[in-house]
Amino acid sequence: MRRVERYLVAQVMGPAVGAFLGLVTVVLVFYASRILAQALAEGFSLDVVVQLALLRLGIFMDVLVPAALILGLVIGLGRLQAGHELIALAALGAGRYRLLSALALPVLALALLVAMVSLLYRPWAFATLYGLEAEVAGSLDLARVEPGRFTPLGRGWLLFAEGRDGAALEGVLVHRHGDGEGGVLRARRLHQEAGEAGRQRLVFTGGVEMFQPGRRRGPDVLAHFERLDVLFTPPSPPVRKRLRRALSFGELWQGNDPVYLAELQRRLLAPLGVPLLALAGLALGRIEPRRGQSARVLGATLLLALYFSVLGVLMEWLEEGRLAPWPGVFWLPLAVMGLLLLRYRLVHRGPGPPL
To answer: Where are the domains of the chain?
Structure first.
């Protein structure tokens, strides 16, 4: 790569890296805040929160990379035009094809990276994510209960214990809500045993009372026991529309389900979207005389939002059978490419400047 090409790539990829870091920060903060809120409600540990946030961030890379690229193109090319550098390059004979050839290699490298994320990392990350969520949601570990504090145990269980005797808890108060259940359990002692078929058994002993405060009729105390065994059932596996994200490329290819077909086409479209959005960035990078580039950056942001929103709608239509399997979600890149060719025909006539 000659000096001119290296300079053009540096001027474009520099803003793209900055945009990528900014987008990563926003997405990481968003997912971390959501997972932290869930952690407070379900009692997740800090390492689980970090794992969930990083997995979610990695899954989102096939969106962040093309988004950062189109923003970097618009900002970088806008700076080159503002300094009249592209006009100077055009006067030296470095026209549009010189610019395209300079950007071709980094764009193809990013497309390859997105292909690896979409085809390889995405199913592994979702499988790991679902397994981690099921493990956390299905575990009812009394060891993490701290006496003197209310501790959420997941599945609508909120537990308070006055003290601890080895692995057992003493002076226990449990509030249950959700899943059609509600009420309070009180017992002098609580310990945990392994149940059947992966279930966990909670054994309440010593003056067990089950009551429901605030009843309009009858006493608050519903029943008395000397021992009460409660089986805690792990959550059901992910439904089909969630499970498809964890399937490998081969399993999706062999499946005939529209839900699997939508996921397959989404993975194939992800790397194709990188050069497509790069061409859109080149089109948006053209700045009219006496106008700034802020409008172009806003336009690129709106284009990204519209592109991925339409992609989501097309996937939903394909899953529901309202869209033909072929071209399916590939209607989106075909439509974008048609609009780009139309714009090129209307705007780029004659030799002119590189943009």
So the answer is: 3-137+246-347, 156-232
